[in-house]
Specification:
By secondary structure, the protein is of the alpha+beta class. Helices cover 36% and strands 28% of the residues. It has 3 helices and 4 strands. A 4-stranded antiparallel beta sheet has the order 1-2-3-4, covered by helices on one side. A hairpin with a 4-residue loop joins strand 2 and strand 3 (100-108). Helix 2 (34-42) packs antiparallel against helix 3. The longest helix has 24 residues, at 2-25.
Length: 121
Amino acid sequence: MKRNTTSIITGFCFAVLILFSCKSSNTTDVKATPEMESFMSSLDGKYESVTSAIQKFAVKPDLNTADMDMKDLRDPIIINASVSDSSTCYIIKTNDGAKDCQYELCWNNGKIISITDKSPE
């Protein structure tokens, strides 16, 4: 009986640890800028919308998009953000209809200065 109780308590503690560690990875204290909010609201499941949003906010016309503009992305959420002296970077999780994708978008003065594919392999 004692072994069963210990197993149950250990399992419960493990489940609580997983729950809290997963929850904390999807939160951020950094508020999205209005430009980032506008960008995210443009991701409606059509690659044309992604392309248009990138063109609207890119710091330069030939910005490397990490092929983000070739996917039908939708339902973006910010899962991480960081602020430095020169930029604010957001990692977003989105879906291309078949799988989840992650991208890091770095911004400076209301413009996207870099896009990096951070999708798990």
